[in-house]
UniProtKB/TrEMBL annotation:
One of its GO terms (biological process) is regulation of DNA-templated transcription. One of its GO terms (molecular function) is RNA binding. The active site is at 393 (nucleophile). This is Methyltransferase. Gene3D superfamilies: NusB-like, Vaccinia Virus protein VP39. Keywords: Methyltransferase, RNA-binding, S-adenosyl-L-methionine, Transferase. It comes from the Bacteria. InterPro entries: MeTrfase_RsmB-F_NOP2_cat, MeTrfase_RsmB-F_NOP2_dom, NusB-like_sf, NusB_RsmB_TIM44, RCMT, SAM-dependent_MTases_sf. S-adenosyl-L-methionine binds at residues 275-281, 300, 324, 340. SUPFAM superfamilies: NusB-like, S-adenosyl-L-methionine-dependent methyltransferases. May act as RNA methyltransferase. Residues 173-459 form the SAM-dependent MTase RsmB/NOP-type domain. Belongs to the class I-like SAM-binding methyltransferase superfamily. RsmB/NOP family.
Length: 459
């Protein structure tokens, strides 16, 4: 390739280059977009509107990948597997801008062609130009009408295509939502949007009111510690830099709080977080433990993730144990236990842009075995009359209600409690909490991640 046919990197738009490089890291190294991009923006000193644009492009493209690939394949008249990876990254980025942003067609096509030309030369850039021009001839709705399964014959397939979800995940959501097509559509649509940023005000350090005032955010509707941040980089919020606040979905805050408000007779202050890394809930429970003069043991099997807990619990009364929680060696008799189990993460797909295209149904089967073993151990470690809060960041019935039913039936004296009163706070009333005894939160109903909570005890 002769140098004169290549555009120099410095002539390219830095935001689009960062988005392209993020998509490449995701494709080539199985990287996580939400870890790669923020660091890249810092390293390259991309700030303000450019940083926001790069984020929208990288995350939006990663989320919509299945839909974009179907459109690209139709426009290119070949399966995307036959397109060179680096060219495909840019085609996805270009198609995303054309179909899902207000970027003008000319700019979306020409900047993408430039990106391809800068690395791959004239031939591939001509191909990119032809494909993206074809993509630009129809709106997203027109492409969906042309390529999605017929809604009359396959409504779940149609909705999965339209809202860029793998079909198996749409089926899981349908089952978790009791089969309602309207609910499914709303759930997939909410999951297909840019997620809101929720901050947590650490109790005893700063109130939500103070955090809202100093961050320019708004107090949350449910969690007494939550602040909704309308925009900007949470890293710029002073309370976060000082460790008085953090970034945490409001649903996770409700779960952490639920463990601490459950009624437990003669609470001796021995609390346990069985799967604590990276420490979001441990930090909130730890702050509440400090107020209640309790102590929290936090178990985490991964050393690296245990280090992350250490960074957020600072001086709180939290003791970290690097161990497998199924055989930690800790003495039974805990008053309160949180088991925030390792799970498929299907409830926070909006926050992990590429994960919906990576997860498989087979992952869930393995996790369910582990979840049951962990919950059985939690019931061994809790004192009679104590509480075990079992939570997942997944609404998958196999990981939620089925795990609880199975373990409850197999452990002598285990009983399920009504979890709804534990999250009844702020504007979160019974009318939003279903029939119980468990609680299932949803982005389209509660604005939170799709967190599940069951409360159990042992006689
Ligand atoms: C859903 S995450 C917990 C998130 C955490 N509660 C928070 O709010 O930040 C599950 C954690 O369990 C850990 N884990 C997986 N298997 C485990 C085991 N057998 N024992 C202890 N921890 C385990 C994972 O490494 C992961 O950090």
């Amino acid at each position: 390739m002769s140098g004169d046919r290549k555009l120099r990197q410095k002539d390219l738009d830095p935001a689009r280059v960062a988005a392209r490089d993020t998509l490449r890291a995701v494709r080539e190294r199985d990287a996580y977009a939400n870890l790669v991009l923020p660091k890249m923006l810092r390293d390259r000193k991309i700030e303000g509107r450019d940083a926001a644009f790069a984020t929208e492009l990288a995350y939006g493209t990663a989320r919509a990948q299945g839909l974009l690939d179907a459109v690209i394949a139709a426009a290119a008249k070949r399966p995307v597997e036959e397109i060179d990876g680096p060219v495909l990254d840019v085609l996805r980025l270009g198609a995303y801008q054309l179909l899902r942003t207000r970027v003008g067609s000319h700019a979306a096509v020409s900047t993408s062609v430039d990106l391809v030309r800068s690395e791959n030369g004239m031939g591939p850039s001509g191909f990119a130009n032809a494909v993206l021009r074809k993509v630009s001839q129809k709106t997203e709705e027109m492409w969906v009408d042309e390529l999605a399964p017929s809604p009359a014959e396959d409504l779940v397939g149609y909705l999965a295509f339209q809202y860029a979800h793998p079909r198996w995940i749409a089926e899981v959501f349908r089952d978790a939502l009791g089969g309602s097509a309207g609910q499914l559509q709303a759930a997939l649509a909410a999951d297909d949007e840019r997620p809101p940023v929720h901050l947590v005000a650490r109790p005893g350090y700063i109130t939500a009111e103070e955090l809202a005032l100093t961050s320019g955010g708004e107090e949350g509707d449910y969690s007494p510690y939550c602040v909704y941040l309308p925009g900007g980089d949470p890293g710029d919020v002073e309370a976060i830099r000082e460790g008085y606040a953090g970034v945490q979905d409001e649903g996770s805050q409700l779960i952490a709080r639920a463990v601490t408000v459950a009624e437990v007779a003669d609470d001796s202050g021995r609390w346990l977080d069985m799967c604590a890394g990276p420490g979001g809930k441990a930090a909130l429970i730890g702050a509440l433990a400090e107020i209640d003069a309790a102590c929290l043991d936090a178990i985490e099997v991964s050393k690296h993730r245990a280090e992350l807990i250490r960074k957020v619990v600072n001086d709180l009364p939290v003791t970290i144990h690097v161990a497998d929680a199924r055989s930690s060696g800790l003495e039974p008799g805990y008053d309160r236990i949180l088991l925030d189990a390792p799970c498929s993460g299907l409830g926070s797909l909006r926050r992990r842009p590429e994960s919906r295209w990576r997860r498989t149904a087979a992952d869930v089967e393995e996790l369910v075995v582990l979840q049951k073993e962990l919950l059985t151990e939690a019931l061994r470690l809790v004192k009679p009359g104590g509480v075990v809060a079992y939570s997942t960041c997944s609404p998958h019935p196999a990981e939620t209600t089925a795990v609880v039913a199975d373990v409850r039936a197999s452990v002598d004296g285990a009983r399920q409690l009504d979890a709804r009163p534990l999250v009844t706070v702020g504007k979160l009333g019974p009318e939003l909490l279903g029939d119980g005894p468990h609680v299932q939160l949803w982005p389209h109903i509660h604005g939170t991640d799709a967190m599940f909570l069951a409360a159990l005890t042992r006689d």
